[in-house]
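Could someone model iron/sulfur cluster with this protein?
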Amino acid sequence: MAGEQKWDKVVRTTVWSAGAGCHGGCGAKLFVKDGKVMKVEGDEDHPWNQGRSCPRLLSLTQYMYHPDRVTYPLKRAGERGEGKWVRISWEEAFDTIVQRLTEIGDKYGRESVLFCQGTGRDIGGPISLLAYSYGSPNWVQFGLSGQSCYTPRLVAMFATMGDYAVADASQFLEKRYNDPQWTPPRCIIVWGQNPPPTCPDAFFGHWIVDCMKRGSQLIVVDPRVTWLASRGKYHLQIRPGTDGALALGMMNVIINEGLYDKDFVDKWTYGFDQLKERVQEYTPDNVAEITWIPKEDFIAAARFYATSKPAAIHWGMPIDMNPQATVVAQAISHLWCITGNVDIPGGNVIARPSHGVTAYPYSTAELERLYGQEFIKNILSRKIGASRYPMVRDFRHWAQPDLAVDQVLSGDPYPIKAAWIQTTNILGGQAADTRKHYEALKQLEFIVVVDLFHNPTSMAVADIFLPAATFAEKNSLRSWWTPLSALVKAVQVGECKSDWEINLELARRFNPKGVPWKDVKELFDSRLEVSGLTFDQLAEKGSWEMAREGHPSKPYRRYEKGLLRPDGKPGFSTSTGKLELWSKCYEGWGLDPLPYFEEPPESPVRTPELWEEYPLILVSGARSSVFFHSEHRMIPWLRELDPHPVVEINPQTARELNIEDGEWVYIESKRGQVKRKAKVTPIVPPWLVMAPHGWWLPETQGTEPYLFGIWDYNINQLIPTGCQSQSGYGGGAYKTMLCRITKIKEGRE
Amino acid sequence: MPRMGLLIDYEYCTGCHTCEVACKQEHNHPAGEWGIKVNENIVVRSQKVTIDYIPFPTECCDLCGHRTSQGLLPACVKHCQANCMMYGTIAELSKVMENKPKTVLFAPR
Ligand code: SF4
Ligand code: SF4
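Reply:
Sure, complex below.
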């Protein structure tokens, strides 16, 4: 490239975790001069983003070299919340942590320490390594009520298909849209997500736009008129929390009108007759009444989806936030099963970690190999939520967050005394009932926060603060579907270390036997063995490689080819070998094997008296293009694009309340009030307001009691805990609580 | 030298703000100064809401001469997530425009 001589080097790497912040996958070029990243661009040779980038990635230098960034370890000097810190060495930090956690573990049991992470980034591997090496089963997305982020969808797919699936935007193919194997979906249902602003769940949001240009027509299920909804063939403006009824109603239409794929259903599914019977309860009239979507609209959309092969469904987190989310996700996955849109080009393709490499090292079998069977059996049975929820016990290794916070406060059935908090700003971000989590964390004897900036959580509760690296400052590995990717370290900033480096070092101190690798690169090499590549080889390839044709992690039609089952026979990796519409897994977990609908905990239907007092549905969590959850509020280039914590209000509603655009208002609910700036816009219906989450003001006072303004602005204060599904996963009521809006009178602001 | 311009296909512009920040990084514009600025238009017609975004190059847009002279695309065009920006001669771009509704052509300089 011309002009490269200006730089000492250009490092091609993969974007994932702090920096851009997102769920990642993009290829980036980092331009380095004198040991500093001076500039970043999208990598045009990377098949994921093909040279494109998002605003967060392009602001990387402002993030990495921000004056407020913490670049060496700190220990608390004054009381918690006073904001007094002193610099310490890594050695002192590690020694203190080992000493304190050992004391606490010896006194109360190792399970008394929580290992808390945020969203699905480059963290599951390092944090589980540390938790298990220390000896605690309590690895948890602390605060995320119902673990309502992807896990419910994952478990539903796993139970139904024995695998996971994603909308096929050609992401498994090196030549992408030009690969002759691929055809664009004729129809895409974008269900409960606004992909362009962020890149969720290992999916580049604008792939949807790429498909639209190639002819895909959209059905958008969303209570708001998002940009995609305004471009959709059908927009189903759903009442939040009723997605299960919609899915069942669409199946009612598709099955009763004979629009499903009969050959596929006969050959590859199990339990169709029972499903057929179940959907009869969900007539179009019932479903229209429940969802507030005109009957004609979803009938037409259901017909369009079923008759447009290939068709794909791309879905989002609101599904996980439905009551009984694990059956809602099940019902939606049934749509692609009964229409035969499974593992075909342009359908929902089975997604496995690329090359069979798991960057999260830990299947139960592997854990047993590393730590011994007895140890694993013991700790997994002690995990918070395991005895109450068989699904939580058996599926992935998370502890249940709602029970975890209750247990911190009650000490029942065993005490919780310390927390390791890494990649999560609990009090400024994902925690429902912020005050409850604040009080719980305050009770703990010892808390370590690993992060890049001080935030409300570190300010309120950290005893030790460890500075973490951005993606540009670390080596790591990613195999989240595709391609197999390396994060390649370009530079060092201060004394920051990667999550892997920090955790490997500590894990070794707690349990040398469980850490047979000399350093992180050796660990990655051992994870990569099945791919035939070393970490350095992968990095040299430009940081990525696609799986070869014929590999079980590469589409298409693997169920016909015997590539999915361990026995090599055609079919799916379930007990019947078929797609289980009547779920044997769910039955085994003591749950209804078929999907059904349940009203949200607060709603115009379930709590009509409350609806009179609080006549608006409060939706939190819509994404901004320039922030990732609670991050990036301190980045000048980004913050000026989205400067205020707003609440979207429909013009008619605003008129009735005498509120003008830009005025400050209170959002009030049974649980308290939050301050917001009114954004009057027709993109929300009159019966709903939307308030983005993750708001704190880094430019304001961080010490107690202010904590960067969370008690004024953090919307998740109004969301309760304890609404989790019967399965333990899903149901966090982040999108369905009731509220009212009042104008802030002069002098009250 | 033929005059150069930017063609925006606003059927597909998602309002993602990438072009704005790409330009900031390239020119090191401070907060408050823009080479290109995204505008939002929301129209409600017979109850249907339509959202259009259009990025507008400002006085500060120099069409990334230091990049294009090296054969590189302008920073905004290269990074646009919707691939809805084109750089070229006004003659080429106006040809594209003839066949593509919802486009707008800018000749900033
Ligand atoms: S062409 Fe260059 S200067 Fe003009 S708006 Fe795009 S990035 Fe900015
Ligand atoms: S980068 Fe492209 S899609 Fe994003 S706002 Fe600019 S023109 Fe629109």
